[in-house]
Write a structure and sequence with these properties.
single chain; alpha/beta; D-Maltodextrin-Binding Protein, domain 2; 5-stranded mixed beta sheet; globular
Length: about 350
């Protein structure tokens, strides 16, 4: 049962159980990747619609951006307090520009793959000169195209033309506007059903660049210093929302909460099962795996060297360290708060 269904008395009881001094809900904003947001954002919508933010005294505004990179830039400008942004571009931004972005929660496992609507075009080499749907220049999908296509020596916007479509790549493929696109796991059944065609998997990120880190909840150092208590409560709400999401009895409810992602209820409910089986959302841990992060940074440094600084981490720049990138104390304090509130 969603927390918000308890009514006014239940909300008051829940609020009183949380050991934080909050008289009125504190406002907080989170930028999400994609318009509409990609399915990883179901966690934020579950925390919001399921009452978990409310439990921790928070009034959270959700703001979708064309890409997670755009959302991270909004964090830097102060337009939003935090964002769910792809780890590779964030690491690149910190390394190249020394920007004050800090990760407080992570989402480790990338599910990216490159799909083709033409079964005769099923090899990496077939991408040369062919348009591929991505989110935005140097965004998450663009970066993963780069990571996957480098296995055959091809690079986006040099050997492979890209089309910027935010999170609408699958829709363009169904409409026959594109043959190739960088996609998520939940795109497969929707594309196949709506197009009536079998999607061919050309490349998979866990095969071409295994062990990389997908996404991070980031804020900036100034926001962290001023709003540490809020961030702890935000992550506490996420911890509880994720636990709720992994219960099969709640799959349909979570699918309903995920309506802003643009998925039909049936598709969204199926996606919750697919992604919880995949371990998409970090259940009971921070999601900030150091080995995956360091592998991601290493690849960005290699790309920077090969492209002479046109992409990746520029030669001569010091790659961001794990200690500089992640603040694990937020998640640790959030978990302590969750345990204390029970």
């Amino acid at each position: 049962m969603a927390l918000r269904s308890f009514g006014a008395i239940g909300v008051m009881m829940l609020a009183s159980a949380v050991p934080v001094n909050v008289q009125a809900a504190d406002k907080f904003s989170i930028g999400l990747p994609g318009v509409p947001p990609v399915f990883i954002s179901a966690m934020v919508y579950t925390a919001k619609e399921g009452g978990f933010y409310e439990k921790y005294g928070l009034d959270v505004t959700v703001k979708p951006f064309n890409s997670g990179v755009g959302a991270a830039k909004a964090v830097l400008s102060g337009s939003v307090d935090a964002s769910m942004s792809p780890t590779a571009p964030v690491a690149r931004m910190i390394s190249n520009g020394n920007v004050p972005l800090i990760a407080v929660q992570g989402f480790e496992k990338p599910d990216w793959f490159l799909g083709s609507m033409d079964p005769s075009k099923s090899k990496c080499e077939d991408l040369k000169g062919q348009a591929v749907g991505v989110d935005s220049p140097h965004g998450a999908r663009w970066t993963q195209l780069q990571n996957m296509s480098r296995s055959c020596g091809l690079f986006p916007d040099k050997d492979i033309p890209t089309v910027n479509l935010s999170s609408n790549v699958g829709a363009a493929m169904v409409a026959g506007q594109l043959t190739f696109g960088v996609l998520h796991l939940d795109d497969i059944p929707v594309i196949e059903r709506e197009s009536g065609k079998k999607l061919t998997i050309v490349l998979e990120i866990e095969k071409t660049a295994p062990g990389t880190h997908y996404l991070s909840l980031v804020t900036n150092s100034k926001k962290l210093a001023a709003n540490r208590d809020k961030l702890v409560r935000v992550v506490a709400a996420h911890i509880e929302a994720i636990k709720f999401m992994y219960d099969p009895a709640n799959f349909k409810t979570v699918g309903g909460y995920a309506k802003p992602t643009g998925r039909k209820l049936e598709d969204a409910t199926a996606a919750v099962k697919v992604f919880t089986d995949f371990g998409y959302w970090p259940n009971g841990h921070s999601g900030l795996d150091q080995k995956r992060f360091e592998k991601t940074v290493k690849i960005q440094a290699i790309v920077g060297k090969k492209t002479k600084g046109k992409s990746g981490i520029k030669p001569g720049k010091t790659p961001v360290s794990y200690e500089q990138f992640a603040d694990l104390s937020i998640w640790n304090d959030a978990m302590a708060l969750v345990k204390k509130s029970k």
